[in-house]
User: What shape does this take?
Amino acid sequence: MYNEAEEAFQEFVRSRWSALVRTAYLLTGDRHLAEDVVQSTLAKAYRSWPRVCRSDNPDAYVRRMLVTCHRDRFRKRRVAEHLTDIPPEEATAQDDMARADEREVLARALAGLPKRQRAVVVLRYWEDLSEPEVARALGCSVGTVKSQAAKALAKLRVLLGSSRLALTG
Amino acid sequence: MTDSHMEEQLRRMLAEQAAGAAPSEPPYGAIVRQGRKARRRFRAGLATAAVVLAAIPGGAFAAQGEWFRDSGSAHAAARHTGFPDGAGVTPVSSPADSGESGGTGPSGPADPERQLLDGITLADATESLERCLDEYPQDVTSEQLRIVLAWVSQGDPNRGEEPLREVLAISDDPGGNFQVVCSDRPEGDLTGVMVSGSDYGTGLPVAPDLNATRFFHPTTGEWRTPFRWADFGLVEPEVRRVTVSYAGSTEEAVLEGQYFLVAGIAEDQPTDPPVVIGYGADGEVLYDSRQDPFYEPGM
Assistant: This one.
C-alpha cells in the first residue's frame, strides 16, 4: 500500500507540477513565489493523500488547495503584491517583440486586479473551469463568480484597451 | 469588442503568459519532507489537545491514517502524550470513526441541547463539517476542531431557497486560531465555507465576530419570519456571562472555548441590530456593543 500510494503521489507531482506552477504564476505574478506556493500545496496534498485520492477529481481537489494556499499566504502575512516578474523576452523578431509587450501589459493589468478577481480570471479563462467549478474552488457562490468576472473583465478592458495591443481584435 | 471576443483574447494572452513561466523540475524530495513535517506537527498538536480532553486506551491514535512510511512521527506523538508507544488517546465526544482514514472526527459542544439546534445531531454537523473540509481543504483536519454551534438557516436568492445547515467549528486546541462556518445542504450542493482567524484584535472583553452579521438577517432578498438568527464572537476570561438582545427578546449565550455562542428566533422583523452585553463575575457590565467602536452589525 505504501509503495503504491507513494508512487501514485510521485506520478501526480511529476505530471501536474508544470501546470500547477503556471496557474500559480498567473495568480502570484512571480515564478519563484509560484513554485513555493505549489510546493506548499503539494506538501499538504502529500499529508492528505488518501483523502485526495478518494475525491472524485484529485486535480480539482489539489487546485482548490492551491487557491487556498495562495489566499492564506496573503491573509496571514499581509504580503504586498507586486506583479513585476515579466517572462524573459527571447524573441527578436517584430511579432515576438509585440507579444512580449503584450505579456508585459497583461502582467500589469492582472496585477491591477484585486486578488479575488484575478483568481476568477485565472481559473475561468486559463484553467477553463465552469462558473460552478470556480465557485467551489474559491468557496463562494456562482453569483459571486459571475459578478467578480464581470468586474474583472471590465477593468481589464480598460487596462488593456488603453494599450495598442491585441485586445483591439 | 464583444465579451466573447474579449474572453477569447484573454484566454490566448493568459496561455502565452503562463507559457513564459517555464517551471523547473519538481522538488519532489523537498515536497515530501515538508509534507512529513506538517504531518508530525499536526500529530503533536492533536496529541496535546487530546491530553486536555481525555485519555482513552486503545491505540487508535497511533494507528490512524498513515499512508507513508514515517514511523518516527507515531513514536514522537506517543512520547508527547506521555503514553507509551502503542497506547492511544482520542477526544471524548467524537461522533464516530470516520471510516477508511481511521480519524475520530471533531469534538462536540459542551451543551448540545443549546448548541445543536433545529434537530441537527453531532453526526449531522460532523458530516457537514467534513464535507466542507473535503471540498475546501484547510490547514486543519476535522479532528483538530470542535463543533460549537449548528443551526438551520433560511436560504436566499443567492444561495438557493432551500434551508441550509450552518455549522460553526473552532480550533479544539485552546491556543488555536481558526474558525470555520460551513453552509451545507445535506441533499444538495455545499454552498460555501467561511474561514477566518479568531483573533480580532479589538482589545475589548467581548468581540462579536463581524462575519456573524450575515446570520442576523437575510443576506439577500426579503425577510421571512419566523427567522432563525445566530451570533458568536470572542470573550476574554473575565467575562462570565453574555446576553444578546435581538428582535424583542434576550438570549443567554453559551460560553465555550473563549467564544460566546447564541441563537434565537425572530418572530417579527427586527428594526435594530443585536445588542451584546458582557458581564463580569459580580454582574458588572464589562462590555456593551452599543459603545463598541468596532461593532458593525450592518443593519
